[in-house]
Amino acid sequence: MISVKGLIKSFGDLEVLKGISTEVAAGQVIAVIGPSGSGKSTFLRCLNKLEEPTGGTVEIAGFNITDKKADIRAARQEIGMVFQHFHLFPHLTVLGNLTYAPMKVKGETKAQAEEKARTLLKRVGLSEKADSYPASLSGGQKQRVAIARALAMEPKLMLFDEPTSALDPEMVKEVLDVMKDLAKSGMTMIVVTHEMGFAREVADRVLFLDQGKLVEEGTPDEFFGNPKTDRARDFLEKVL
Amino acid sequence: MNLDFTQMTPYIPYMLEGIWVTLKFVAVALLIGALIGTILALFKISGPAPLRAFAVAYTSIFRGTPLILQLMLIYFAVPQLTGYDITPFLSAITAFGLNSAAYISEIIRAGIQAVDKGQVEAAQALGVPYRAMMKDIILPQAFKNILPALMNEVITLTKESALVSTIGYLDLMRRAQVVGASMYRQFEPLLFVGLIYWVLVMILTLIGRKIERRLKASDIR
């Protein structure tokens, strides 16, 4: 599903990603962890070209997006993305948020899009909020709507950029529960997260980034039980 | 106390006609200003370097010199340089239109740039094309930021429009002066049109508030 080779990303003189390579198979859930400034979010944002990779290749959902001729909009339709700060469209209702892109980009009819949107809202437990505006929702509710909005495009995989970092503690669980449910349904997911519990419980594999390098990767049991590198050990001591 | 409004009575219809003269030219000037202002704003945000430089220089010149000077330049310079005898109306809408374009371009630019960058990213991540994103996602939100400042510009323009009395355009202000001269009483007609300007501005303010409240529907918790 994803194949990243030698991915480099620089902002001016600052090299944020220093050659990252990894493969992700369909249906896998990957947790990307690491200290702040390690390049985790930049790595994720390179996968749908919200950041333009400086070097290396990224193949994702059947598109080589580092190829200049790649149809990046077509690729993005297959790649759902959930942001730390939700980024719901504030002037549209919840239903409007879910139906806008399917109608505008995929040409679905209003009836089709709304039927699908209502099914998705039910799935994330927010059926009664269809006609509300984002400003009236709690953080946890906003993030669940944002997940539903991404799913409404029926993507092949989902990227999550610290989806619970901006939430009040009591709202973290409701979002993680939706993500767990999504993982169980077989969705391919790349999750940048500080939730070690989630990484341990749900991820098939953990990627540990530090200073722009993929320092260690392995199953959660290997990584959390017996980290191979000093840097991973240091990091885990601090966060666990 | 030497105030006598009764002498003014026969002149009232003449002065009231000035309302339409003023509103007509303010509306046309505003339309020109909005059109050129939008184009300048887009130049400033996403234009190539020469167009951006032009827009910045334009704004700097029109905001950096007195409006009455611009008005006089257009009214007196055009006949002197080209021989074309420009009418007061044409001079007025040109000067006010070009001048308000500079202000409106800044209002629109700031409004668009105040929209959270995350909105662009969210739309891009969903595969929404640029034009649709601008039209459906960014501009509606920018408009909400812009509206109070834009309403302010409309009000300023309505009041500043009195400047055209200096080139003999028969607007509200000029009519008050004409009536004052023929009655040998300046105070009453000036007070009268002053009241009319105030009422006009109050009406514009109310309209602005009403639109703002409707746009705020999505903010209500």
Q: What key phrases describe this protein's structure?
A:
A: 240 residues, alpha/beta, six-stranded mixed β-sheet, four-stranded antiparallel β-sheet, globular, B: mainly alpha, 8 helices
Give the SSE layout.
The complex is a heterodimer of chains A (about 240) and B (about 220).
Chain A: E1 2-11, E2 14-24, E3 29-33, H1 40-47, E4 55-60, E5 63-64, H2 72-78, E6 79-82, H3 94-106, H4 110-123, H5 139-151, E7 157-161, H6 169-184, E8 188-192, H7 196-202, E9 205-210, E10 213-218, H8 220-225, H9 230-239
Parallel strand pairs in A: 3-8, 3-9, 6-7, 7-8
Antiparallel strand pairs in A: 1-2, 1-4, 4-5, 9-10
Chain B: H1 12-46, H2 49-64, H3 67-82, H4 88-113, H5 117-125, H6 130-160, H7 172-183, H8 187-215
Large-scale geometry of chain B: flat
- Annotation field: number of helices of chain A: 9
Residues in helix, % of chain A: 25-40%
Could you say which structural class the secondary elements and strand pairing of chain B correspond to? mainly alpha
Q: Could you tell me the radius of gyration of chain A in angstroms?
A: 18 Å
For the sheet with most strands of chain B, the description reads: none
Large-scale geometry of chain A: globular
What are the secondary-structure elements of chain B, in order, as H or E? HHHHHHHH
Structure summary, number of beta strands of chain B: 0
The most extensive interface between chains reads: A-B, 28 and 23 residues
Q: Which whole number gives the mean pLDDT of chain A? A: 95
- Give the oligomer, counting copies of the same chain as homo and different chains as hetero: heterodimer
Overall radius of gyration of chain B: 21 Å
Tally the beta strands of chain A.
Answer: 10
Report strand order across the widest sheet of chain A: 6-7-8-3-9-10
Main beta-sheet annotation of chain A:
6 strands, mixed
Helix-strand makeup class of chain A: alpha/beta
Runs of chain A in which pLDDT lies below 50 for 5 or more consecutive residues are none
Chain-averaged pLDDT of chain B:
91
How far the N terminus sits from the C terminus of chain B, by CA atoms, comes to 56 Å
